[in-house]
Amino acid sequence: MTAFGIREFEGKRALVTGGSRGIGAAVVRGLLDAGAQVLTTARTATSAPEGASLVTADVRGRAGVEEIVEAAHDVLGGVDVLVENVGGAQPHEQATAIPDEEWQEALDLNFLASVRLDSLLAPGMRERRSGAIVHVSSAAIYSPPPQFLHYAAAKMALETYSRGLAAELAPHGVRVNTVTPGRVATPGGEQTRRQWAQLEPGQDAAPVPLGREGAPEDIANAVLFLASGRAQWVTGSKLVVDGGEFHRG
Ligand SMILES: NC(=O)c1ccc[n+]([C@@H]2O[C@H](COP(=O)([O-])OP(=O)(O)OC[C@H]3O[C@@H](n4cnc5c(N)ncnc54)[C@H](OP(=O)(O)O)[C@@H]3O)[C@@H](O)[C@H]2O)c1
């Protein structure tokens, strides 16, 4: 038995981007516990949760994405579960002060990395008529902070893309869903909120209705659900996991 229940990923080959720490590492641990074989990625980290293989590559360009796909073929032989978790951005004082290069970087990291990775891995899933893709977005899309407009806009593009891809792949037995986290206690999340607080003191004062920040495992549980057979009739959906912070009508 595992935290997630039975070993329901036994025999599954999973690729998780950005799994050296934070939400990605929690997803990796959850998948390993549930019996999957896992390859994860990072740009600089040299270690991943015990039991997972690691490929070091930058997802912000086509070359890095191709390296990851090559490693997935070498290490796993194919991918049944693809979790695209990498993301982030540096805040700026004003939206209009975000330089072009950082808009491009935000799009590459938070949106185009998934487009490129899916374009290389979804065809294999389609051929096998089976596969689950989960994109990790951000609740920043609900009330886009000007300081992070490049990030929020890229995540919104990711969500729109995710729904369209789900429609294309559904007839081929491949599911595509999104998880949209609120504030989560991770190294990347904490660092970003510190930088943001310097630019806009008090921005983090609003209480989370459920009384605390999320833990990486709160998000991993949602990712694992959507990637698992329990969600076999779920595609083109998104699961917002934010402690009730964003009220959506
Ligand atoms: N934490 C939050 O509050 C929060 C809220 C909403 C949404 N999210 C989203 O959830 C996801 C995970 O966030 P997190 O807070 O867990 O992030 P994190 O703590 O910053 O971890 C990011 C992971 O991605 C890797 N990575 C970063 N840049 C990369 C690059 N260019 N190429 C390849 N790998 C790269 C990092 O490894 P290296 O540093 O070694 O490259 C690390 O493994 C992101 O998409 C984020 O936008 C987070």
From TrEMBL:
CDD domains: SDR_c. Keywords: Oxidoreductase. GO terms for molecular function: oxidoreductase activity. InterPro entries: NAD(P)-bd_dom_sf, Sc_DH/Rdtase_CS, SDR_fam. The keyword Oxidoreductase applies. It comes from Saccharopolyspora dendranthemae. Belongs to the short-chain dehydrogenases/reductases (SDR) family. PANTHER family: OXIDOREDUCTASE, SHORT-CHAIN DEHYDROGENASE/REDUCTASE FAMILY (AFU_ORTHOLOGUE AFUA_5G02870), SHORT-CHAIN DEHYDROGENASE_REDUCTASE FAMILY PROTEIN. Transmembrane segments: none annotated. Pfam families: adh_short_C2. Coiled coil: none annotated. The keyword Ubl conjugation does not apply. This is NAD(P)-dependent dehydrogenase (Short-subunit alcohol dehydrogenase family).
